[in-house]
Design a protein that fits this description.
Pfam families: Aminotran_3 (PF00202). The chain is of the alpha/beta class. It contains 15 helices and 15 strands.
């Protein structure tokens, strides 16, 4: 029986979902590491959505802090007013970042907005520093920095860019190789030699463009969802910092997904030597999913130049430093600090990696397990010897995701891992509050899901 136009309209949801064909499942509640669906079934949130829910779900302290802020003042415009929640969150974050030269915090509602703000700060810094000819950015392939025009322009997530390329995206961006050892490091190279080659490639790109024309270099400290938690080789970011300093180019690190304690240190770059980024973006775990918040931590040298010039940042948002979002971020930060969750993340991450390596040691299609802390990626390949990926139409990562969900586990699937078209992966990023017993259950369900997909392909 065919539907009438009126019936068809009524059956369509008013909300525009990511897919116009498949509707997402409705969640009715969350507690700890669990999400409860409308049908009553429970799902272990093994990926925190997109590495967001660091404290898990239903934290009463954060909820109470949000309600207190609502009872005091829900909104003020930052052109004229500020609130204690915004001031205190900025002070507590810069207390951590000040040793690295990052002395100011600028709060927005999403990681995409944070990256756009960082790009504008970088450009304004050079403009007010007497170098208006600096108009270019250099970024890395297989990286994602956000969905707004600026952030997408410095990203190289091909499926998300294709509809807008040549029409909306900036053309003053070029790309160098990612720090992706599994596919990029030569068999004849040491880790240090690989790092040196990547740094030289960046230097060569600056030279090709004319280093005096470059605003900044943008990079995820630990790769995010596009290439699944790729980690830099030893010495890479120290070399990058020196090359940027040589030419007066700003180093912009994106820790929207990997920061806020997710990798076992509050800032992911702390594990890579003396880096000191000029601008650092944070998001996702900053608010733990309790309210939309992201931010930019700003280096003192950037602040000094702006202070000597216009003494302002030519940028702003209606919901900038929103009181409730900042209250949520502040409460999340204080719970993490009090409960020592960042150090525990480092320990639990090591345990999770150990369990994964043991469980998947003989897995036919698991090419590499990588990452830091509770931010681990698993890359699938059809042939481990050659690292040859599955054809895109196999949808290996999606199959694992669906098999895991049927068993009560959410993992973060990805495709186009290698070059935007080829490659599959899953990301595991459970709440930092997860217990050892819950980690064991996560690995068990994930292995069962993988095994079912492997069996299906071998039949």
């Amino acid at each position: 029986m065919s539907l009438t136009n009126a019936q068809a309209t009524q059956s369509e949801p008013g909300l525009m979902h990511r897919s116009l064909v498949d509707r997402p499942l409705e969640i009715v509640s969350g507690s700890g590491i669990y999400l409860t669906l409308a049908d009553g079934s429970r799902i272990i949130d093994g990926c925190c959505g997109a590495a967001v829910s660091g404290l898990g779900h239903g934290n009463k302290e954060v909820q109470e802090a949000i309600m207190r802020q609502y009872s005091e003042v829900a909104y003020v415009h930052t052109m004229a007013y500020t609130t204690s929640s915004a001031e205190e969150l900025a002070n507590e974050l810069t207390e951590l970042s000040r040793p690295f030269g990052l002395t100011k915090a600028y709060f927005v509602c999403s990681g995409s907005e944070a990256m756009d703000a960082a790009m504008k700060l970088a450009r304004q810094y050079h403009f007010e520093n007497g170098q208006p000819q600096r108009k270019r950015f250099v970024s890395r392939r297989q990286a994602y920095h956000g969905n707004t025009i600026g952030a997408m322009s410095v990203s190289s997530n091909l499926p998300r860019k294709i509809p807008y390329d040549g029409a909306l995206l900036l053309e003053n961006v070029s790309f160098v190789s990612p720090a992706y050892a599994y596919h990029g490091q030569l068999d004849t190279e040491t880790e240090e030699q690989y790092a040196s080659r990547l740094v030289q490639e960046l230097d060569d790109e600056f030279q090709r463009l004319g280093p005096e024309t470059v605003i900044g270099f943008v990079a995820e400290t630990v790769g995010g969802a596009t290439a699944a938690c790729i980690t830099p080789p030893k010495g890479y970011f120290e070399g990058v910092r020196k090359v940027c300093d040589r030419y007066g180019i700003l180093l912009i690190l994106d820790e929207i997904m990997c920061g806020s304690g997710r990798t076992g240190t509050f800032f992911a770059f702390e594990q890579d030597g003396d880096i000191r980024p000029d601008l650092l973006t944070l998001g996702k775990g900053l608010g733990g999913g309790y309210a939309p918040i992201a931010g930019v931590l700003v280096g003192q040298k950037v602040v000094d130049v702006l202070r000597r010039g216009t003494a302002s940042f030519v940028h702003g948002h209606t919901y900038q430093a929103h009181p409730v979002s900042c209250a949520a971020g502040l409460a999340v930060h204080r719970v993490m600090k009090r409960d020592n969750l960042v150090a525990k993340c480092f320990e639990k991450g090591a345990l999770l990696e150990k369990r994964l390596r043991a469980a998947f040691a003989d897995a036919k299609y698991v090419g590499e397990i990588r990452g830091r802390g509770l931010f681990l990626g698993v890359e699938y390949v059809q042939d481990k010897a050659s690292k040859r990926p599955f054809k895109p139409e196999v949808k290996f990562g999606k199959r694992v995701h669906e098999a895991a969900h049927r068993r009560g586990l959410a993992v973060y699937p990805g495709s186009g891992t290698i070059d935007g078209v080829n490659g599959d992966h899953s990301i595991l990023a459970p709440p930092l509050t997860i217990t050892e017993e819950e980690l064991e259950e996560l690995v068990k369900l994930y292995k069962e899901a993988y095994d079912s997909v492997e069996r299906d392909l071998l039949l």
